[in-house]
């Protein structure tokens, strides 16, 4: 196609050889699509997924710039075969046959904005993309990054329900960056390598709905009240810290791409059948009375295999949970009514 002249040259060469280099070189693995692949998150995320040995085909979709991003990334000598798709008319081809779809499409925050301020634009984008998923790869596992995640995941669920394809086990909101931040900041305070620290972060993905459970830190450690207050606030406002530092140029993209690639890799390892894959994610849940909630989930061949209980909370965390639930309930309702209005 016009998108990939180098590919057709390559196909001509492989015809001369009487073989299809592409098929021959293609590693066994999963087919992954990234929707919003040309963006601040999308580009480094595409790079990281091209490096993932579990990926055999990588489809890069956006409404702008995918020919360039695809040509660039396709030169990496890793196993995944990369194809680019540009604009709405190519959405269905981008999605056809995918095992995992990652959605970082949509506008990011500027200083002074909350994630909810993005609702009006991003809700419609997520709806359109999920309609495509329901039509073309209804069994794919879906990772939603687009903000406000607290509302876009319920939006995706409603779109899938309408299409008759909804399986709550396959729809996951990406909150990994909150865990990545918590592990980093706690590592700094405790003087530990952040790779050796693990903090569950539950609730949702905006302000007070982000609840780091410091009492459950691994390795077990205790914190002073000052440390608890500093760490909780730094994790809850980590996104805003980056938005302000970027001063109008966007929100977290590099750490987010890292977090999204880490989460997608966990999904793929679960899909492959690895045991004991546990990550925090914002999912349809019965952990609280709310229909969606982020907590630890065990990932398996078909997505979520088990939602783990919250575990014991201290008084500070119980108070945080009550605050979180109030805001979360409203964000969920807003997402649901967007589709059912
Ligand atoms: P960006 O503006 O750099 O990139 C977004 C990309 O989406 C652009 O390339 C744009 O062309 C594309 N896009 C717009 N409409 C589209 C459509 N209808 N179909 C396909 N692609 C479309 O934004 P950035 O920084 O990459 O952020 C993307 C989203 O991720 C934002 O909503 C942001 O708030 C969210 N985010 C989520 C985080 C999380 O922890 N879940 C953390 C950081 C950002």
Automatic annotation (TrEMBL):
Positions contributing to NAD(+) binding: 36-42, 62, 122, 145-147, 256
EC class: oxidoreductase
Similarity field: Belongs to the LDH/MDH superfamily. MDH type 1 family.
Biological processes, Gene Ontology terms: glyoxylate cycle; malate metabolic process; tricarboxylic acid cycle
Quaternary assembly: Homodimer.
Name of the protein in question: Malate dehydrogenase
Record has Oxidoreductase as a keyword: yes
Pfam family, one: Ldh_1_C
Any one cellular-component term (Gene Ontology): peroxisome
Stretches assigned to the Lactate/malate dehydrogenase N-terminal domain: 31-173
One Gene Ontology molecular-function label: L-malate dehydrogenase (NAD+) activity
Binding site for substrate: 109, 115, 147, 181
EC number(s) recorded for this UniProt protein: 1.1.1.37
UniProt keywords, alphabetically: Glyoxylate bypass, NAD, Oxidoreductase, Peroxisome, Tricarboxylic acid cycle
Subcellular compartments: Peroxisome
Catalytic activity: (S)-malate + NAD(+) = oxaloacetate + NADH + H(+)
Lactate/malate dehydrogenase C-terminal domain boundaries: 175-338
Catalytic residues in the record: 205 (proton acceptor)
């Amino acid at each position: 196609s016009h998108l990939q002249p180098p590919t057709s040259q390559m196909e001509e060469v492989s015809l001369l050889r009487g073989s299809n280099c592409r098929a021959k070189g293609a590693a066994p693995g999963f087919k992954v699509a990234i929707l919003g692949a040309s963006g601040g998150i999308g580009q480094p995320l595409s790079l990281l997924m091209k490096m993932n040995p579990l990926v055999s085909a990588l489809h890069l979709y956006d409404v702008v710039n995918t020919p360039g991003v695809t040509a660039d990334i396709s030169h990496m000598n890793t196993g995944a075969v990369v194809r680019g798709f540009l604009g709405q008319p190519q959405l269905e081809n981008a999605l056809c046959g995918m095992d995992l779809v990652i959605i970082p499409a949509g506008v990011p925050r500027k200083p002074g904005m909350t994630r909810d301020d993005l609702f009006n634009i991003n809700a419609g984008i997520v709806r359109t993309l999920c309609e495509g998923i329901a039509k073309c790869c209804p069994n794919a596992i879906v990772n939603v990054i687009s903000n406000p995640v607290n509302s876009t995941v319920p939006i995706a669920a409603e779109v899938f329900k309408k299409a008759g394809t909804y399986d709550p086990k396959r729809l996951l909101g990406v909150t990994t960056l909150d865990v990545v931040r918590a592990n980093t900041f706690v590592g700094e305070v405790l003087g530990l390598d952040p790779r050796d620290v693990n903090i569950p972060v539950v609730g949702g993905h905006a302000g007070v709905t982000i609840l780091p459970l410091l009492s459950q830190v691994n390795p077990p450690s205790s914190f002073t009240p000052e440390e608890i207050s500093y760490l909780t606030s730094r994790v809850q406002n980590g996104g805003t810290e980056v938005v302000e530092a970027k001063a109008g140029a966007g929100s977290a993209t590099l750490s987010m791409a890292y977090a999204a690639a880490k989460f997608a890799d966990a999904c793929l390892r679960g899909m492959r059948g690895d045991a004991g894959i546990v990550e925090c994610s914002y999912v349809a849940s019965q952990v609280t009375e709310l229909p969606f909630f982020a907590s630890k989930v065990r990932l398996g061949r078909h997505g979520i295999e088990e939602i783990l209980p919250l575990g014991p909370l201290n008084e500070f965390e119980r108070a945080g949970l009550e605050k979180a639930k109030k805001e979360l309930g409203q964000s969920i309702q807003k997402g649901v009514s967007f589709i059912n209005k």
